[in-house]
Amino acid sequence: MFDLTPEIKNQIVFALEDQNNSYVIHMPSGRVVDKSLPKDGEEDLYTSLPEWGPANGFRMMERFVSIIHNEPLQKKLRSVLFSGKGVFRNFKNILKEYPESESLWFSFKEKEMTLYITQWYNMLRENVGLEKLGEEPEENEDLVYDDFTVREYNSVKDKDILLSAANSVMAEREVLWPGEIGIALSHIWQQTFNVTETGKTFSFVAETVEGEFAGCIVATSCPSYAQHTVVLTLFFVVQNYRGLGIGKELLAKCLETLKQNNIRWVILNDIVIPDFLQPCLFRNGFVFNGGGYVADLFL
């Protein structure tokens, strides 16, 4: 019975994705060959690979779309899934427009197919009286893009790009709330940004390995009579990088630093926070208090 090495697993994945040919695997060695190659009398040394067809690939794409949090990308991919034509090709083409999400797709796909192959392999082991492999790969519950860094804000390097990104977020609000109300909400957010520029702050930015700005978080100190309290005056992730775990990492880094600086209370105005970041707040101990969110870092 062959060992399921990474090399053999890759051979199996390649064979499963080749819809034009059929393959079998040599049980003693794990060598994957065309179904027509085994010689007469050697058939018992080979077994079929697990079934994998377009329906399996489609369901895998559906699962991926269901767990990503980038709403614009999610809508595009869902539209492709139900278009009925060129689904696989168009799915890949759209992901190419979002390189970070494309990386998540490759990671998701690898884990899904590893799980599928491992389950099949364990069935083979049981059939010959062997124990199953150890713990199987965990299913994908929350995708995180790890090709980015979180560092302290540099006013010289980051100010212009931060302002540009903040303006894009304000423009999103005006699209979401057309007319006067959208302009008013953007103005309120701009005032918050101005406070960030003048107060004492704990500030961090996220950037990709290529140095592209991906998001920012800023905590601004309160007056001296509330020296253990800060207000999150800025917290956003650039649209194309949402749903990649960047907001979670920014918040974790900021809260860790605040706690190290003996800050206990963190306040966040409800108007400032986008809806897509709310689950991240709750996971980090924030509670909604009617007008915003508050976290006690000493709990």
TrEMBL record:
PROSITE patterns on file: GNAT (PS51186)
Keyword terms, alphabetized: Acyltransferase, Transferase
Source domain of life: Bacteria
Location of the N-acetyltransferase domain: 148-299
GO MF entries: acyltransferase activity, transferring groups other than amino-acyl groups
EC number, UniProt record: 2.3.1.-
Protein's name in the database: GNAT family N-acetyltransferase
Species of origin: Candidatus Treponema excrementipullorum
